[in-house]
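Researcher: Sequence of Exopolyphosphatase follows. Predict its structure.
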Amino acid sequence: MLNIEKYGAVDIGSNAIRLLVVTVIEQKGKDTLFKKTSLVRVPIRLGAEVFLEGRISDKNAKRMMDAMLAFRLLMKTHGIKRFRACATSAMREASNGPEIAENIEKSTGISINIIDGEDEAAIIASTDLKTLIQDDKVFLYVDVGGGSTELTIFANGKNITSQSFKLGTVRLLENRVDEDIWNQMETWIKKETKEFHRISLIGSGGNINTIYKKSGKKIGKPLSYLYLSSYYEQLKSLSFEERITEMDMNPDRADVVIPATRIYLSAMKWSKSKNVYVPKIGLSDGIIRSLYNEKIAAEMEVK
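Model: Prediction complete. Tokens:
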């Protein structure tokens, strides 16, 4: 007999706000299945103003409220049993972030957890990567967002270490990243990977997912450093308008994809990685997995 429930994850990022609905299917004596049922993405670029002005404008605060009201109704319609909303760089750096979160909770009942970089990295690392992380391989997990990049090293099938850097696509577009941040990330990657050989990247985030989809690669096959660097040069050779019309990109993707690709290529160069795997997972998936793990832990306590 199957136990079927739906979980919801709200990811309030610097480039977009997302609602992920996952159907969790428990089977007696077998692994639990996590089936992505719905994903709604609203391109409210909070980081563009927060990283410049230090606060979220009234206009975008209203857009956030509307999005949360819509998400609340969608979760009700889906029959969501458990959900969690997490906000990252833009909300945690906005001077009025806590105030907006409080207003949203009063109006929608959705409590927003404003998490720091370490929490973000830990949640992302909790995702199920068993299909990729073999005991005899080493991986540098790179999640590129609008406001920050989360890095995690996996070796011997275990999470070795994680670090978050204020290096994101929207920050780069708004020229809000000092060269020192690049140097810090380079130093960290080189230091933490120097004892390992044959490291591969695992990339997550909307930009690398877009690149992977357009590559035509079969699921499970990695992108090479050569392919990604060639794609990067192609992106830079086209105007913003041409990336929309000729490469069939959404307007809110056509600008951030260039700094995102630069970050992935830099991480590959510094870790001497030749390939990047793209399993299409991220913070939302980690939230779902955390909710499920909490449920299992609670059931064990009751027993």
